[in-house]
TrEMBL record:
InterPro entries, per the entry: NAD/diacylglycerol_kinase_sf (IPR016064)
One MF annotation (Gene Ontology) recorded for this entry: NAD+ kinase activity
Record-given protein name: Inorganic polyphosphate kinase
Organism (species): Streptomyces sp. gb1(2016)
GO terms, biological process: NAD+ metabolic process
Length: 299
């Protein structure tokens, strides 16, 4: 007898909860904010909306289903199962945070603050949870398969991202490396920069787009489901030992970008999750390309 699906509710600590953790009580947090000319009321109201949405979603889950919750900070320690239906309750970015830990499970995005969130990934309301969960668990349920990017290091470390992967120095130093197409006969161009960004169509509305606009780039940004990535080098520095001829490009299926570290240390992280980063040292290499898995977002 097969197991019933498990609903995994993904949420994150609210700004209000963070304020209470820092200041101890509502009154003390309100006092501190008032001293800065701010009010705690708006933050507290957003917290109440998030709590109401979580309660409504939990109540709407099918009765026979198993269920559990995981907070954003614990995602890297949570084991998702193949039978899970992942219900993300929060902001668009929370879907991206969860995506890197999944392997094809259907994802339902519930917007806790309509009008404040763009709603690109959290497309639905809490009242639609029951119907969305049934659709997610059905063989013919319609999903949008969103392209993801991956980084694979030469020591087999692997990292996935829905929006973008950043490779660069851990602080504000300069990263030194060689960059070039994967499989090229030469080691690539030596560069010194503040890092490299490799992103998907989903990420092309955020950090990636800001670089694209700043450069006035002629590259065509991909759509979320396009099997194509774009990449940019940030602030490449020309010198007698470093070049700037390879600062942007695109990657189709099967193509890769290889970077070989020539700094003491570089970090690789996806979708802003700096706490869950790969660390590379001098001489190591990493390949960037399209991931073999997609984020299956319930439409």
């Amino acid at each position: 007898m097969s197991l019933a699906p498990r609903a995994v509710l993904v949420h994150r600590t609210t700004e209000y909860e963070e304020l209470l953790a820092r200041h101890g009580t509502h009154g003390q947090a309100a006092f501190v904010l008032a001293g800065r000319g701010r009010s705690i009321d708006e933050v507290a109201e957003r917290h109440r909306r998030a709590e109401r949405a979580l309660t409504e979603v939990a109540a709407a889950l099918p009765l026979r289903w198993r269920r559990t919750r995981v907070e954003r900070a614990d995602l890297d320690r949570f084991l998702f199962g193949p039978e899970d239906v992942v219900v993300v309750v929060g902001q668009d970015g929370l879907v991206a945070n969860a995506a890197k830990y999944l392997s094809g499970q259907p994802v339902v995005g519930i917007d806790t603050d309509p009008g404040r969130n763009p709603g690109v990934l959290v497309r639905h309301r809490a009242r639609d949870t029951a119907a969305l969960c049934r659709a997610a668990a059905s063989p013919g349920g319609r999903v949008d398969a969103l392209t993801m990017t991956e980084a694979v290091a030469d020591d087999t470390q692997r990292l996935l991202a829905l929006n973008e992967i950043y490779l660069g120095p851990p602080g504000h130093q300069t990263a030194r490396y060689r960059i070039g197409p994967d499989g090229a006969p030469s080691a690539g161009e030596p560069q010194a920069s503040s890092g490299v960004l490799v992103g998907t169509g989903t990420g092309s509305t955020g950090w990636l787009r800001s670089l694209w606009l700043e450069r006035g780039s002629a590259l065509r940004l991909p759509a979320p489901s396009d099997p194509r990535l774009v990449w940019f080098v940030r602030e490449a520095w020309p010198s007698p030992a470093t070049g700037t001829s390879m600062v942007a490009g695109e990657l189709a299926g099967g193509e890769g970008l290889r970077l070989t570290v020539e700094s003491d240390r570089m970090v690789v992280f996806g979708d802003g999750m700096e706490s869950d980063a790969l660390e590379l040292t001098w001489g190591q290499s990493v390949r960037l390309g399209i991931a073999g898995t997609t984020l299956n977002l319930v439409a």
